[in-house]
Amino acid sequence: MSKVYFGVCGIGYGHIGRCLPIAENLYGNGFDIFVSTYGDALQLLSSYGKFKYRVAPPMGFQVKPDGSVDFKLTIVDPGPFLSFVRFVKQVGFEYAMMQLFQPDIVLSDTRASTVLSARILDIPCITILNQFKIITPVKKPLFRKLAILLDTGSIAFIGAIWSLSDLILIPDYPYPYTVSLGNLEIPEIYADRVKLVGPIVDVKPSDLPGVDRLRNMLGVGLDKPLVFAPISGPRRERAPLVEKLKPIFMKLADSYDIVMCIGDSSSGKLLEDYGGFKIYGWIDRYYEYLKACDIVVCRAGHGTLSKAILYGKPSLVIPTPNHTEQMGNAKRMEEMGLSIVLDQESLDFDKFSSALKDLYEDGELRDRVLEAARFASVYDGLKSTLEYIKRFTLYH
Predict the structure, then answer these.
(1) pLDDT grade for 160, boundaries at 50, 70 and 90
(2) Same domain, 282 and 355
(3) Model's pTM, two decimal places?
(4) Which domain holds residue 54?
(5) What's the Cα-to-Cα distance from 114 to each of 33, 78, 94, 101, 106, rounded to whole Å?
(6) Distances in whole angstroms, Cα of residue 135 to Cα of each of 88, 312, 324, 327
(7) Taking the chain, what is the end-to-end CA distance rounded to the nearest angstrom?
(8) Residues 102, 42: one domain?
(9) Residue 309: CA atoms inside 13 Å, Cβ hemisphere, count?
């Protein structure tokens, strides 16, 4: 029996959400699975109840009350020195867990500590990575200069560790529909180990019934446009946006059917019902709502946007303030003409309702979205990732 060790970034549900289908498939094919993660990911992983796992030392960043990344506070708490100490603790933890589990291959989702531990133990390692380049966005000149200095070191340090992987898989579409195009500045010396495999999605549109049948099954969107708002990310980043959207959605409930999921995997029930506007803690039928809807309202997480493209849905995107990857993803979606992007800080009813109306009525935008979906349907990141893992376990 081959053993696969997963070291997964625990910030939000995006990383663990794409690793679980990989683990599920391998488990079903007789592989032994072990998962190391922390933070938000633990809630989703523990509810799965299928794989052995251990809680790793956490890593993360500070956020402001509005959910934006607080660069100034992160400099102080935990600060560069304590961040390095935490990283060393993670490496020690990963090293010990790998020695205990004795895997045939290691799969790291964004975690440098997992890669470094695998390399020390001479275990083959595949890394899943959205972005190779790390930049800290700040507005004040003093902190911008400090950010540049820290970025130079962090890029060199973390990038050098990621490059120790035997293979780096980017779960994105090839050009011209690459979501993280601005972040994927891969040095040529690493290029032969980097593969663009497509997003890791376990349910394709073709796996589901048609839109009309889905709407009848779900009991939504029968006489009004359907808006699906899966708000992803760490809880402290989600909460401020949810509170801003609630009064807006309540006003729009006469014109749209709106289903919002606030990303609490511990609560799968309907939390609030305002007739045309419903709030769920967690939705198991995520892909059914995604296919049934007319418009997606979301953060700018890589996974959510990739799925919106695959399912042919125009999106109203509200990136987490000061979150580099999300800001880049949102800009890219706007450049491709697939989304309208709004700023959380200046978000109000008029801007939101106008953007929603434009997304629903713009025929040219819908044509672009459908063209992108046809392009995306060719790529199967889950299948490709599984093939690479099985190939490594076979030859190593």
Answers:
(1) confident
(2) yes
(3) 0.89
(4) 3-202+379-395
(5) 15, 21, 6, 14, 8
(6) 22, 30, 6, 11
(7) 14
(8) yes
(9) 32
